Amino acid sequence: MSVQTIKFYQTGSFVVGNRLLEPGQRSVQSDPERSNALTSGHRACQGCGEALGARYAIDAAMRATAGNMIAVNATGCLEVFSTMSPETSWQIPWVHSLFGNAASVATGVAAALKAKGRTDIRVVAQGGDGGTVDIGFGCLSGMFERDDDVLYICYDNQGYMNTGVQRSSATPPAARTATTDVVGPEPGNVFGQGKSGPLIAMAHGIKYVATATVADLRDLEYKVERAMSFRGARYIHILVPCPLGWGSASRDTIQMARLAKETGIFPVFEAEGGQVVNVAKIRSKVPVEAYLSKQRRYAHLFGRSPRPDVVAHLQEMADDNIRKFGLVDNVAEEAY
Amino acid sequence: MLKQTEGSRGVADAIALCRPEVICAYPISPQTHIVEALGVMVKSGKLTQCEFVNVESEFAAMSACIGSSAAGARTYTATASQGLLYMAEAVFNASGLGLPIVMTLANRAIGAPINIWNDHGDSMAMRDSGWIQLYAETNQEALDLHIQAFRLAEELSVPVMVCMDGFILTHAYERVDVPTQEQVDAFLPPFRPRQVLDPVKPISIGAMVGPEAFMEVRYLAHAQQEKAVDSIARIGADFQASFGRESGGLLRTYRTEDADIIVVALGSVLGTIEDTVDELRAEGKRVGVVGLTAFRPFPTVALREALGHCSRVIVLEKALAVGVGGIVTADVKASLAGLPVETTTVIAGLGGRPILKTSLRKMFDEASSGALKPMTFLDLNMDAVNREMERVG
Q1: ipTM of this complex
Q2: Do B53 and A115 touch (CB under 8 A)?
Q3: Which fold has domain B2-243?
């Protein structure tokens, strides 16, 4: 397999540089012999959170498996930008079948490997939020319920970005998409009940569920490696900001992910066997406005006819997450 | 070994003899007995080195088959009717990816109205899916075709659908000859995939292909199916040489040599038609029948040869293209282009309506006298139809 030597000095966020760490604790990306599972030359947009997340996640999975892995991809941005025939960015065995069936295809790959006695080869399935919590949800639930030996990674950019930014069931309330436009008395997406992929995954009682963002890539790598230490069904849900769909500056992708976590809008945690075992605490709590106001998909909440009521509603949802997951120490104490 | 057994059980025995490595199962009548039997074999340890995966839908069943086949495992599933339609997207995908999956289709009508009985509406809906479609006339042939199907699929890297009439075959107890493991092993070599997901030699399967190459990819799939015409005939002949009985091949003729009128049909109804032909022959009528075993690829040349000399062809179809009529008819007509042969369509047996010898005799009589309309629905209750038409206006 071809290797690409390191191009830059990589540090994670809120952590010391690689130089000060033991080699085993360093980012996969700091290794000059890194695997480059998703190598350069693909067609992702500038500032794409998904490309970054996938690169770190799959390289971490490769380190955990010594390269003995097969990836299954749902239809979506990641598939389209990485494999325009006759080119491919993938340096691993990789298969794409359909939009809604990545989890089932992965089940099939795992079954084949088991039948052949090759369980040393591990299976990772990946898809966007649409391919995971919408159209692929039945297949995903089936894979969880059977406890098939598959790590499923959802790269959540909160909408159907590949088809031109339409609403998915992971699109947050009030966000503008092409199918939830800023018109009528309730501009943007509806305030429904929401649909949490990670919590539903946990309800299946599977071995390992984690959330992560591209703001803390070292944490993401750790979670992938942790996931690979289990056998059976596992799920990692990664928030990957999308400059195109969110209307955020491409240079702000990491910041958007960090703000999503620091506001409490996107709780970062780990769960084993259906129980939360670890949460990433908010370091300095930020009001949701700081996160929302940097994205054009929420522009209608500010500006000429602002909607402080909607912002307050979103703040309530973030505060609710903070209470439920104990994201801020004193708040957690109040809740209990 | 001769065995008095249910059609589904015979197919399950044949599949087990083919040493499948992954079987995906989702229940739908009338296919269930096949995967039930295979499930028992795997769970009891009778069928080893095989994973039996109970999935949550037919879409998942075919998707898991795609993953398993792409990882190099010999892969099998079975379905019927609504199940086939529910997996339709993955059915097309499996052939597009060139994955040699073998699937039994226990032919059953498509709803609404919901109906669990036999016709060919399901497989005909997947006519253009890129799968090879073989139709069994008897339980013995259903058993034999599955053994041939794996070899055919794996030689060509094209998936094969073995169609057997739901209930009429799947649930009928008949005597079948179940071959030995040694016989099947000698006939069917281990699966060597054309390409496989392997960390030692990573490849990307299922990339996006743009307008500059999509036509070529589709053409190659078509060329592969054209190659299958020869392969089906050759593998059928090989089967006969190895197992000592005729099974498979492209089509079968019955008393067609000097026939004026020939019926073309698929599946289990051929037995009834052959019996009717025998009776009419005894009365001196020159009639015959052609059974199509291969529908995809369509055996154009062989069919033209089998039918070219007669004056009238009746295509008896167990499916209806609403708004057009016959489905098989179009392909039969194309095969006979330029020849002075009249072709008529008879739609029969929809939703499990029995196709009786008396009705078939009437059909032959009308064809002889020239009274058979170009498009006929066998045993249609016109009173009920007219009543309903009057009611709705």
Answers
A1: 0.97
A2: no
A3: Rossmann fold (3.40.50)
